[in-house]
# Entry
Amino acid sequence: MVDIDSALRASAYSGKKNKSDAQGGEKPASIEPFDPAAHAVKEKADAVSMWMVIALGALVAVAMRYQMMTRLDGPTQILWLLPLLFTITIPSIHRLVIPPVFSDLYTGGNWFRASFLYLFTWLALSFALVNPPLTDIASPHLAGSIDVEANDGISLASLDGTTYTIEIVQDRVPVVFGLAVRDNVNATDAQMTMTVTQKGIEDPIMFVSGKASEIANSGPAQEFQSVQEWSRGMNYNSLMKKYTDYPKVAPNEKDIGMAWELCDGGCDPGTFTITVELSEESSVWSTGLNTWSQEYTLRISQVG
# Structure
């Protein structure tokens, strides 16, 4: 804000100086006189623009959350493309809503500031509306991919994306694989379906379905805790500069860890497919669900 009294004194001083310069033969500098009334009108115009843009950003965020998203099955480009296109209409909305006594004072700088204020308002409120505690847009998922218990019969175990490769030194080796369910609110209520198939066998060799907590408490949680060492090792904490007590398959203590024996009596070389589907109830999408799914390939080969 400009101190009006100081501005008037400066204007008066500049006027006296210009007169003295003119008497000395020098051309007086051209200084635009300060108009307190015009400055006050411009300040009011900027304030009106600011609050109108904040209201516009909030209106768009609420409309996208409670009108648009509830009609969609999942995330699409229109959720961010449509709000961005609204920035083009900001000058027109100003001239339509704000009286000419204010709107005629706006320049390109006003449109630039108004556009960024609108975008920041829309983004901030959108993040608040789709995240806890207001709602939950994130689907439950696996915490750290799958892993296999280390034992003397496994010479090499490596994970490349969704493909887990195991090399064994015996004809048949016991294979215990594990996974962990994670959610940003409550992983215990996540619905889980897991299907394990083996190449060359038509029917699934394993099928699990139900709440993650109920599945874990039926035995897989105890199996997970009984594993002495996972093939991919422990989780390295870069901040603490040491390995934590939680393996890479379940890096967080709130992850729901589960483990199963893949084959009764040990596994022969072969290719297995592990399909995991997770879902939870949600009021965000038209389906009423947040869903996640992933397919892993477990390849066992014999060496030596």
